[in-house]
Amino acid sequence: MKPSRSVYSTNYLIPGESMQSLVVVIFVKLCVNHIPYALRSHCKMADRHLKLACYTDADFGGDKLDMKSVSGAVFSVNGMIVGWMCKKQRTAALSTGEAEFVAASCGGQELLGLKELLRELGMALQLPLILYMDNQAAIKQVQNEARSSRAKHVDVCLKFLQGYSAKKIIEPTYVETGEMIADLFTKALPAPRILKLRAACRLK
After folding, report:
1. How many angstroms separate the CA atoms of 139 and 199, rounded?
2. What is the mean pLDDT of residues 22-37?
3. pTM value?
4. For 30-83, what is each residue's pLDDT tens digit?
5. C-beta of residue 51 within 8 angstroms of C-beta of residue 77
6. Which one of 11, 77, 164, 204 is at 20 to 30 Å from 83 when CA atoms are compared?
7. Region 119-133: what's the mean pLDDT?
8. Ramachandran area for residue 149 (φ above 0: left; ψ -120 to 50: alpha; else beta)
9. Rg of the chain, C-alpha, whole Å
10. At a CB cut-off of 8 Å and minimum separation 6, what does 203 contact?
11. Higher pLDDT residue, 145 or 17?
């Protein structure tokens, strides 16, 4: 059976997880002496802290074969896109909110990893890290430290976000759905929408 259109189209945007990790490691090892200078030069932030942000979104029930959702995330440093992610969720979410929590948790973990990488390279960072979401109800649940559902794996994701939000390390922030650039990596989109989001990501 053929995979659903949304999963099929986004699978070709980035390499598999293991290959992607290998590429990142090789790139960092080769360019470690140049990354701080490149970031400072591009962003003109030599005398200020770097601002890290992550846009996260989910296509609820995106795979029509098993009804599993697809997570998407875009990572930026001072507004400069430095990475993106497309990942099918391991279990089927029971609501849009649950799918959003899983996607935000996954994006948050990668954001924390990027924070540690830049700190190892001697970069000064601005806290809290910004985690953009387009679901206001989900953001309120993260901020109110409430349970989300009967699903344990979703509550684990929620508690992860709530913990870092309470510590002021990650700040969930609302962004309009039309401006959510992570939508580009969750499902197949009409050409005008793709062009708009691609331009927002500064991708040619």
Report:
1. 26
2. 49
3. 0.74
4. 455 455 555 555 555 445 788 999 999 999 988 888 899 999 999 988 888 888
5. yes
6. 164
7. 89
8. beta
9. 17
10. 81
11. 145
What is the arithmetic mean of pLDDT over 144-167?
Answer: 75
Number of structural domains (the chain) is 1
Sign of the C-alpha dihedral computed for residues 168, 83, 91 and 99 taken in this order: positive
pLDDT of residue 146: 58
Given a contact cutoff of 8 angstroms between Cβ atoms, the answer to whether 164 and 170 are in contact is yes
Tell whether the torsion through CA atoms of 3, 7, 11 and 13 is positive or negative. positive
> Do residues 59 and 72 touch, judged by C-beta distance below 8 A?
yes
Single-letter amino acid, residue 17: E
Residue type, 153: H
* Order of strands across the sheet that contains 80-88: 80-88, 70-77, 50-59, 125-133, 170-174
Yes or no: say if 45 and 173 are a contact pair by the CB < 8 Å rule. Answer: no
In sequence order, the 6+-apart residues with CB closer than 8 A to the CB of 59 are: 6, 69, 70, 72, 99, 186, 187
pLDDT at 131: 95
CATH number of the domain where residue 120 is located? 3.30.420.10
